[in-house]
Amino acid sequence: MTFSQGLTVITGETGAGKSILLDAISLLLGKRADLSSVKDTSKKCVIEAEFSIAVYTLQTAFKETDVDYEEQTIIRREILPSGKSRAFINDSRVTLQVLDTIGKHLIDIHNQHQTLSVTTKDFQFKLLDYLGDNISVLKNYQRELLVFKDLKKQLEVLSTTKFEAQKELDYNTFLLNELVEANLKSGEQEILEAEYETLNNVEIIQEKLSEITALSTAEQIGIIDALREVQQKLGKLKEYSPSFSALFERVQSVLIEYEDIQETLNDFSEKIEADPGRLSEINDKLQLLHKLQTKHQVNSVEELLEIKSTLNIKVSQTIEMDETISKLQSAILLKESELQKQTTQIHNNRKQVIPSLILQLEELSAQLGLPNARFKIELSDTKSFNKNGADNLQFLFTANKGVAFGELKKIASGGEMGRIMLSFKYILAKYTQLPTIIFDEIDTGVSGEIANQMGNIIQKMSVKMQVFSITHLPQIAAKGTTHIKVYKEDINEITQTKLKFLDQNQRIVELAQMLGGEKKSVSALAHAKELLN
After folding, report:
1. What are the sequence ranges of the domains in the chain?
2. Which of 117, 206, 280, 527 is deepest in the core (most CB within 10 A)?
3. Band of the pLDDT at 164, cuts 50, 70, 90?
4. pLDDT at residue 207, rounded to an integer
C-alpha cells in the first residue's frame, strides 16, 4: 500500500481487521514478535515499509545508532517459522532497541490507552521548549552538560586515586629518598668490589710486587739481565743463520715488553698503599648496595636505578595530582557558571510562553467539550542540572469549576486525557515537524459537535504532517483527504481482510452507513454528502 500526505481516515466494522495494520506498523517500530502475529506459521512473514524522512533531520539519530542514513529509509521485519525475528534498516541488520529508537522519530501511535506520554516531564518540557524557541539553546546546554558531567567524573576518579596514592606517598617518598641518598651510578658496584679487593689485600700485593721486582732486577739471576744476555748471544749467532736473526728479534720484543711490564709494576707499587679510611668507605657503600638489593629483591645497581625511576614517577604523579585536581575544580566552576547562564535563559524562555500555552490549551479544550477546563503550569528552579535544564515542572489541571487543581496524570479522566493529548499534539505540530501520527479510535465516547471539532483539529494538523485516524465517527471520517475502508471477505472458505481506497461516491455510501446503519436512508445519504462538503 502507498499512503498519501494529509489526513487518511480508516473505517470499518468492529472486528474487520483494522488492528492488523496497526500490529504490522508496531512490529516495524520495534514491538516484540511471535508466531501469534503470523497467519501461516510454516512460512516466513515479512513486513516492510518505506519512509520519506528528508524533512525530519534525523541524520544525527542514524549516526548515533550506527545506521546508514537514507532519505528514503526502508524498515523490514522478518518473523521466521522458528518464532525468531530479524530487523533491518536500509538492509543493515539492527537490534530491536535500535529499531525502537529510530521508530520513535517516524510514527507516533495514540489511542485512549496510550495518552500517558503527554503527562511525562520530557513531553511537557518539549512542548514548552518548542513554543519558547528553546531547542537550540537546550541542545547546546545538553552538550555542555555532558562536558560538565565528564569533568566531575574525572575529578571523582582522580580524587579517589589520590586518596589511595596518598596512603603510599610517604612510603614511596622514603624509598625514593633512600635510593637518591645512595647516589647510585651504573657499573659502580663492580668497580668498588675490585677496589675493595685491592685495598683489603694491600700487604700481599706489595709483598708479591717486591718479589717480582727482585726477580726482574737481581744482579746474578735477574730476568731483565738474563734476557739481555740471551739477546747478546743470539746477536752473535744471527750472522750464521737467518733463523737466529728472527729469534733475536723476538727476544728483543720480549725484552721491551717485559721492561714495560716492570715499569708499570713499579708505578703500581709506588702508588699502592694501605688506606683504612678508603677501605672502610668502600665497605660501607658495598654493604649499602647489598642491603638495598636485598630490600628490593634485585641483583644489580642497574635494577635499583630502574626502581628509583619508577618511584620518582609515582611520587611526582601523586604530587602533581593536586595541581590537576585544582585545574579540574576551576574548569568545573567555570562550566557550572556557563550552565547556570544557559538554564536561566531556558527558564526565562519557558516562563514567557506559559500564558500563551495555557490560553491555547483552554481554547482547544473548550472546542473539544471541556468548557470549564483550566490549566496551571508551575515552573521552579531546582538549582540542579539535568537533561531538561534546572527546572521543576508541574502541569496542573481541573475540568470543573470549584474543583481544586491537581496533577494532570492523576486528575484527568481517560476521555479528558485523550482530548488533552490531541490539544498538546496540535499545538506542538504548529512549532515543529512531528512524525506521522496515528490516532486509533481516540474519539471513543465522543459525538456530535465535539466530534466535528475533534475532526477539525486533526484535519488542521494534517496540513503540515501525515495523519491517520482510525475512527467510527462519520464527522471525523468526512475530514480525510484519503478514505480507506477495512472489511472482511470469504475467499475459498478462508476469511481475508481487505483494504479499499474509497472514491467520492463510495465515501458517501460508507458515511451514510456509519450514520444510519445498513439501510442507508435518503436522509443519511444527504447528511453524508453534507459532511463531505
Report:
1. 161-320
2. 527
3. confident
4. 75
